[in-house]
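User: Okay, second chain of the day. Same drill as before: sequence in, structure tokens out.
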Amino acid sequence: MSTWLERQASNHHVQLAATAILSGVAVAGIIYGTQTARRKVAVDKLKASIPELDEHHQAQKLTDFGSASPIGIPSKEEERAAALARRAQAGDYDEELITEQLNRTSSFLTPPRFAHLRDSFVIIVGLGGVGSHCTSALARSGVSKIRLIDFDQVTLSSLNRHAVATLADVGTPKVQCVRKRIEAVVPWVKWECFNEVWKQEQGQRLLEAWDRGRGRKPDYVVDAIDNIDSKVALLNYCHAHGIKVVSSMGAGCKSDPTRVCVGDISASTEDPLSRVTRRRLRSLGISEGIPVVYSTEKPGPGKAQLLPLPEEEFIKGQVNELSVLPDFRARILPVLGTMPAVFGYAVANFVSMEISGYPHETIGGKARDKMYESILSALQGQEERLARSAGEEAQGLKIPVSRDDIGYLIEEVYRGKSVVSGIPTRLALVRWRVPEAGFRPDEDWEGQKSARLDLTDLVCMTKEEAAVHEKEILLGNRAHEGLYGTEVIGLVEKRQQEEAYYSRYR
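Assistant: Same drill. Structure tokens below.
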């Protein structure tokens, strides 16, 4: 062994290689040492540039999302407005001035109704275009206590639709911006600001009574959130806890103010955000009872659409990583600056009418319970016929489908239309294909006989189409391709894939 080492050590090529390796290590060490020294100098320089904390330099904590909460240096006018607001909110403000400023609203509603509005407490969740205009309108109309909830900051691109933000507010929290600007108009209004994301686990704290639970309970909650998960969580929480809530659907890609409506969420149409929200809520057992502001404007050629992400962003990896927060949209939704204002004022108007008790009408729900009961009954009869065709006793057969399931399938999965013809009347649900185990009932539980049926097995057709489908496909063993074209088969597959995605929320 020692002889081999001596021979290698005397080898000229080995000596050159060793020299090269040692030289490389030395150079790398010098480079790393230099970089470390430079980094230390840079860090020390940065630390030295940070002033000591005193009355001129005060530290602020980062938000829960790792961003600063810049307040900025107020102008003299802002300082005067803030000082006046502090006095007014403490009761040092002439009531006659308030009465005069709100005189027109009081005259419209009548003093007794207006008194309800003046004594109210409203929570606004989301302070973008819709939420900021809604807040401004409610404060100017007489609401005396307002709680603002939003995690975001004012951006330059949001100034085209924000109610009160200015260039000076860019980079500041929306909750502080809205309060500061509106205080200059109605200094007596009292505020509670929460610079954070709405989360269901924080619902009790965020929606508690005024003054940390010691005061009045909220008269209304305004949902102006544009994130699906947060919106559904808020609406579900309010519905479960009996808190009155009104929700704004999508103002993006809309341009016709005459198409904006207020009605029950079950009646909302032509609105992708409404459809997804409605579908998610139905999966939680909520089909109606939540008032929403939505637009019936139809998309069409030449109209604005959701802007696609550049192809290079997809190539880089997960698109969700581009979002500010998990599950928040990464794509750009074109917004005409006027439309969020229309939505915001419609919401504020609805809340004012509701709280004051002023007579008003909204679009009611579809009230299609009788239709769902009829479809459920027809499905029951169909399953019994199929069981008998397999030589089974159908008496006492149960199907694992409820009336709410029928409504969900008809309205949300199949958009209230037949997959075959698109006809929206005389609808029925029918199995799409013959199950592998046939139509033999499940009798695993003694004394109970039920159809082996899942919601994803069913498709929506007219009664006439369902009868033909039952005869030809389910009983006649005919191939789908022999009865339907590729468009129908493709549509069924598309709807079933969508439901596979949404089923995780059920």
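The two ends are 72 Å apart (CA to CA).

User: Thanks, on to the next one.
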